[in-house]
């Protein structure tokens, strides 16, 4: 059995980890922390878990965490990097759902997260936890920076084009128009997240600059091994009045080769062996509810009016493939388990 610690058990990604891991055949949750609710039964806060567990929240206890095989940090940015050194020295693997181990450049990290990095050496050895791209490195990693939710949709939506032999699109024309459900902002009390502020409304945010922008560019640069293609990328996130779900629409100009190519076949073959990426049949319209609660990302391609623009539609559940499901996918790889273990959940529709 893999002994698991979860730091940040009262938040949305924390409880999503609990939901998934309670059904995982190879896992035992040893610690589930909360600074505010230590002593409370987890099913008293989350009645969805009644009858499934007797777990209680506990204070963060380094000795207990040091005895785990792996610790997930479902905490705000800046928490994991302060505890990672002790854990790694004790032989514990670390999976951070926040951004402490995503941006490799510490100056960029400080610029976007407003704090110096606490352990640049561990940052250097950490692996960006996007299995469809970094599977082999994840298997032997000690520390995983689990991707941000928007960056997962963009990188997986573009991967087949970036890996193609020919240049099928003009990457410097990329526009990313993305929408997230409100749970993407976490469970914290904030005025903009009140029902009366976020329901029956639809708005853009972070248009001047969002911290996922550098993460997306870093990822795309790494896959393409071409610096500069994405320097002019436009990324506009929006808040949608739904609880879960993320819908990312990308627009790119096709090259002459791209106009001749069978892009549907390219995407289908690129993802033929991936369990968690579904290339939908031509003409499909992905919907967020088709992935709700599941570790799935669905993609559809369009070339409107047979013109020179490629439109890529991507949906995922921000809390599952966008966060906790992906983190468990990474854990499975790190412990030599089948990647799908504990993750074969059917999406909830309607
Ligand atoms: N929500 C989403 O869709 C996604 C979130 N993420 C990232 O995952 C992380 C968690 O997100 P989410 O679950 O939404 O956040 P929440 O705000 O819902 O939960 C945060 C959790 O962290 C705990 N916490 C807060 N501060 C500290 C601290 N200093 N030390 C220890 N624990 C602390 C809180 O518990 P308590 O106060 O009880 O201690 C709470 O359980 C964030 O970094 C987020 O950016 C990534 C991808 C998607
Ligand atoms: C709707 C909403 O507010 N979403 C969050 C993104 C959540 C996430 O995945 O991002 P991090 O892990 O990088 O914080 C945001 O835009 O800040």
Automatic annotation (TrEMBL):
This is N-acetyl-gamma-glutamyl-phosphate reductase. Its main location: cytoplasm. Pfam families: Semialdhyde_dh (PF01118), Semialdhyde_dhC_1 (PF22698). Residues 3-141 form the Semialdehyde dehydrogenase NAD-binding domain. One of its GO terms (biological process) is L-arginine biosynthetic process. It is found in: Cytoplasm. Keywords: Amino-acid biosynthesis, Arginine biosynthesis, Cytoplasm, NADP, Oxidoreductase. Its EC number is 1.2.1.38. Belongs to the NAGSA dehydrogenase family. Type 1 subfamily. One of its GO terms (cellular component) is cytoplasm. Pathway: Amino-acid biosynthesis; L-arginine biosynthesis; N(2)-acetyl-L-ornithine from L-glutamate: step 3/4. It catalyses: N-acetyl-L-glutamate 5-semialdehyde + phosphate + NADP(+) = N-acetyl-L-glutamyl 5-phosphate + NADPH + H(+). NCBIfam families: argC. It comes from the Bacteria. The keyword Cell division does not apply.
């Amino acid at each position: 059995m893999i002994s698991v610690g979860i730091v940040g058990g009262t938040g949305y990604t924390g409880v999503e980890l609990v939901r998934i891991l309670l059904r995982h055949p190879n896992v035992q949750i040893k610690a589930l922390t909360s600074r505010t609710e230590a002593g409370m039964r987890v099913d008293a806060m989350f009645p969805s878990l009644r009858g499934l567990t007797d777990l209680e929240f506990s204070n963060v206890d380094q000795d207990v965490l040091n005895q785990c095989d792996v610790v997930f940090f479902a905490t705000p940015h800046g928490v994991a990097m302060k505890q990672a050194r002790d854990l790694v020295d004790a032989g514990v693997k670390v999976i951070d759902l926040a951004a402490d181990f995503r941006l490799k450049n510490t100056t960029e990290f400080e610029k976007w997260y407003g704090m110096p990095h606490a352990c640049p050496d561990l940052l250097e050895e950490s692996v960006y936890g996007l299995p469809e791209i970094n599977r082999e490195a994840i298997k032997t990693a000690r520390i995983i920076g689990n991707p941000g939710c928007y960056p997962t949709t963009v990188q997986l939506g573009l991967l087949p084009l970036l890996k193609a032999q020919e240049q099928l699109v003009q990457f410097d024309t990329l526009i990313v128009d993305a929408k997230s459900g409100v749970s993407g902002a976490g469970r914290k009390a904030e005025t903009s997240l009140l029902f009366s502020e976020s329901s029956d409304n639809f708005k853009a945010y972070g248009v001047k600059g969002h911290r996922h922008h550098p993460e997306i560019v870093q990822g795309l640069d790494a896959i393409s091994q071409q610096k500069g293609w994405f320097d002019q990328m436009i990324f506009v996130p929006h808040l949608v009045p739904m609880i879960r779900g993320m819908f990312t629409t990308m627009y790119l100009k096709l090259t002459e080769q791209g106009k001749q190519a069978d892009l549907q076949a390219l995407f289908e073959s690129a993802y033929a062996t991936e369990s968690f990426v579904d290339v939908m049949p031509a003409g499909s319209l992905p919907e967020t509810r088709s992935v709700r609660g599941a570790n799935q990302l669905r993609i559809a391609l369009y070339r409107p009016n047979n013109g020179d623009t490629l439109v890529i539609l991507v949906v995922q559940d921000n809390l599952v493939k966008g966060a906790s499901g992906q983190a468990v996918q990474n854990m499975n790889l790190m412990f030599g388990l089948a990647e799908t273990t504990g993750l074969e959940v059917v999406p909830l529709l309607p």
